[in-house]
Specification:
Length: about 190
């Protein structure tokens, strides 16, 4: 699947779930043990806010602390939608062969966008768990994200980006396999 289309479809699917979150639920636990729902949503919006700057060629140092702190404010759903819209616009305009300058080194824009699609999708599932919302990944989205993530699974484990891999049956649906790589267990 085309990287830009993948990002668009992930964002659409996750936005539907995220916009159901209410402030009174922000204390709910998530599969990310270090974050409750409000903290997780703040992290997700924070990540989306970086996308336009990074795709424009800015460095981490140039962006600095611009997005530190509470990026949800008193209108969390609007904060999500505004950040998602800006990220989508930046992805639509991106040169996939261009470079983004990350703290770990430069990366092709296409790879960065695919990585962000994975991040948004998996954290979207985390949000759904905190809300008791049934988020079942579109099979095409799940397959594309799984295919992009599988070659990186050892690196993701090594740098602590994800929890320990969860073993799943070989014949498990691709969504379950993806979540297993990301240290998430379906049904636990």
């Amino acid at each position: 699947m085309d990287t830009k289309l993948l990002f668009t479809r992930v964002l659409e699917q996750v936005t539907e779930c995220v916009l159901t979150a209410e402030v009174k639920q922000f204390g709910n636990a998530t599969p990310c043990s270090e974050w409750n729902l409000g903290q997780l949503l703040n992290h997700m919006v924070y990540e989306l806010l970086w996308i336009p700057d990074l795709l424009e060629g800015k460095t981490v140092a140039e962006i600095g602390t611009k997005y530190d702190g509470d990026v949800l404010g008193d209108r969390p759903q609007a904060a999500w939608q505004d950040a998602a819209d800006a990220a989508q616009e930046a992805v639509n305009k991106a040169d996939l062969a261009g470079k983004v300058h990350l703290s770990g080194g430069d990366k092709k824009s296409q790879d960065y966008i695919a990585e962000m699609a994975m991040e948004v999708l998996v954290h979207g599932w985390d949000v759904s768990q905190a809300l008791n919302y049934s988020l079942v990944f579109d099979p095409g989205i799940a397959q594309a994200v799984y295919d992009n993530t599988l070659p990186q699974k050892d690196q993701l484990q090594a740098d602590g980006s994800v929890g320990p891999e969860i073993d799943v049956p070989e014949d498990a649906p691709v969504e379950v396999k993806l979540l297993g790589i990301m240290g998430r267990s379906v049904g636990s």
